[in-house]
Every structure is written in structure tokens, then in C-alpha cells.
Specification:
Chains A, B: It catalyses: Endonucleolytic cleavage at a junction such as a reciprocal single-stranded crossover between two homologous DNA duplexes (Holliday junction). Chains A, B: Its main location: cytoplasm. Chains A, B: Belongs to the RecU family. Two copies of one chain form a homodimer. The first copy, chain A, is an alpha+beta fold and 212 residues long. Chain A has one domain: Trna Endonuclease, Chain: A, domain 1. Chain A contains six helices and 13 strands. In chain A, strand 7 and strand 8 form a beta hairpin. In chain A, helix 3 packs across helix 4. The first copy, chain A, is globular. At the A-B interface, strand 6, strand 7, strand 8 and helix 3 of A face strand 6, strand 7, strand 8 and helix 3 of B.
Chain lengths: 212, 212
Amino acid sequence: MAIHYPNGSSYKVSTNKSLKKNHNDKHSHHKLTIYGDRGMTLEQEINDSNNYYLHKNIAVIHKKPTPVQIVKVDYPKRSAAVIKEAYFRKASTTDYNGVYRGKYIDFDAKETKNKISFPLANFHKHQVEHMRQCVQQGGLCFALIKFVQTDELFLFKATDLFTYWDNQFNGGKKSIKKDIIKKLGINIQYSLNPTIPYLKAVDKLLNSKGES
Amino acid sequence: MAIHYPNGSSYKVSTNKSLKKNHNDKHSHHKLTIYGDRGMTLEQEINDSNNYYLHKNIAVIHKKPTPVQIVKVDYPKRSAAVIKEAYFRKASTTDYNGVYRGKYIDFDAKETKNKISFPLANFHKHQVEHMRQCVQQGGLCFALIKFVQTDELFLFKATDLFTYWDNQFNGGKKSIKKDIIKKLGINIQYSLNPTIPYLKAVDKLLNSKGES
């Protein structure tokens, strides 16, 4: 069975029966899982991995819905309400949060085409402030940073991000060198299932002293 | 200064300067806080309280955006993108989550006009399943249940909810008597600031053994 995506490329899709077995909910839909890193966006890869973690009872982490300001809604007879006018709002938080090993997890995912450094402009001020607030409450916060040209993915601790974020307003650089992200961050290797085993990197954080 | 709401009623509004003082972020907007329970919906009351907790650096708890399936977007020249067709989707999680005292907090808020019992149909199956998954990962989950006729508000633990939820499929009642909610839940008294001091009730849960 092959699914053809808009760009014409084809993906191998497999129904994951082992998930079914471990899942308590009899009424759950039969899930399709797309394996590997074959043109998926980082967001798709993370959603895919979160689905895996959810159905394996490993963690409950969801992407938040896109914030939308709804202005006009039609209520046609005998069919669903249709939103006729709405606008995108800026998110005041990060995109992902949830619970893992009893810990509050909060992160955002960023891709860059830049080969040697990560531009800090990828973050909104609100997102960084949100992470700062969460860290203060004992949450575990980080960024997943992907260098798309080389398919390299890193977990970068929020506390490290704060240092570089703040520095840019004190004469520091407006980007973080990839070498620094390599050194301070945790490299995440793509795998079959989950696509992005980022909770392994979270384990390293939780097991070390310098967490969050 | 008075704000007139669509229903014509007027609310006393006060600029809360003490929030300003305790807030580290110099760039934060000057917040207006509406005090007390004067016709606000439960959602407004909770958002209001969450704002208070956020700016006092007590907890970071947000309402998730309404999930919307976007079908058609227009990109007019020189102005913001307009969503022209979209549909409401069912939420697969609860509405509120965040972090408090290092704990993952997850809850939903429900109002009922019923005077003597709370109909379980107020919950979607997905929301209950989501809470079950969160509890399993060590999260603290509950419902805020408001009897609007009498302005009575209770924190009701998810683990208690599960009992009554599951019972309804085994010949049990489709609702929970208010007396039971009074007995098992924690009453929350409305206050000036925050409107709903529900984290006091959470403290009781966290300080007791039978948490979550």
C-alpha cells in the first residue's frame, strides 16, 4: 500500500498491529504509522512520535491547536457549523506540552536551512518567556532544533537557550553556532519507531543533575 | 472606569499595579483584571485566575486554543491572511494544562444548570481517556464542576470521575449526585483575586496522600 503525497513521492505505510495489542482502548481507531524520515516535516515527525509514545503508554504529549481568532460562523441547516472568517493569532506558548515520568514537558520545534548556525529569530519572545515561566515552576523545557540540510536533530535545553537569547540583547550574536548546539545539546538519531526518539534525550536530562 | 459588556451590565475594572511589581518581564503589557463573579462564564473565571497565577509566578496554566480544521485561506495583499473556510474539530484532550509546584496539571471545566446532579454526558469519552493517560504518567488531573444555579464550584478528582464514568457502562447512573461531589470533591469559594482560587484545592490534593 502506498500513499502519494502532494509532492508526488510515495511513502511506505504499515499498519502497526503491536500498538493495537498494547492499547487498552478497544474503541481506538486503527492507526496508520509512517516510518522513517522520508520528507516529513519536523512537525509531522514529532506528531508521529507523540502518537507512538501515547499508544505505548510512555508519555502524553500533544501539539496544541493553532490559535485562531474566530470572527464569523455560519450555521447551515442539517450540517456542521462553518467558520467563514477567522484570523491566525500569535501563539503565547510553545507548541508542545504534556507529561512524561511524572514531569511536565514543554518544548518547541524549529527547523533551519542554515548550515552552520541557528538564527534566534526562529523563536518569538513570547515562546522564550513562556519557557522561562515553566522552568521556574519546575517544568522540563527545551527546543528541538533541526538542521534540514543535513538532517541533524538536537535537543537543546531551554536554560542554554536563555543564555544565548539574552546575550543577543547585550551585544551577543543573533544566532547560535551549530558547533555550540552540538556541544551543549543532545543529538537525536532518527529511528524506525518512533521516528524521533526524543524522549531518550529527555531521559538523559532527567537522569543528569543539570535538568531543565 | 467601567467596561460595558454586550449584555449591558457594567463591571468594575481595576488596574492591578501589584502584579506589575512582581512581574520580571519589563515588556509585559499592563494587565486589566476583572474581579469577582459577576456574570463571567466559568471559562472566563478560569482564564482570569490563570492570568493571576501566571503574573504572580505561581503557576503556568493555559487554556488550549479551540481546535479548528482549516480548509481555505485567503492571502490578501498588504493585509493579514484570512481563513475563509474552517470547521470545529472535537478536542482530543482536556482544555487546560500546565505546571504547578513541579507537577503536571491537567483539567477540564464543566458547568451544569442541573440542581441536584451532574450529568456525565458533559464529558466526551476522549477527554476522560486523556485524563486516564495523564494520571498514568503521574499527572494531576481533575474536573472543575460548577452548579450555576447555586454558584457552587468543586474540584473533583479524575480518579473519582473514572469510577462514576465507568459505572455508567455497567448499569450505573448517567450522572453524579451533587451530594457525592460535595463529599468527594473540594469546594472552591469565589474570591477577589484570583476569582477562582482553585490551586488551593490542588494544594490539598498534593499535600494529601491520595493525590491525582
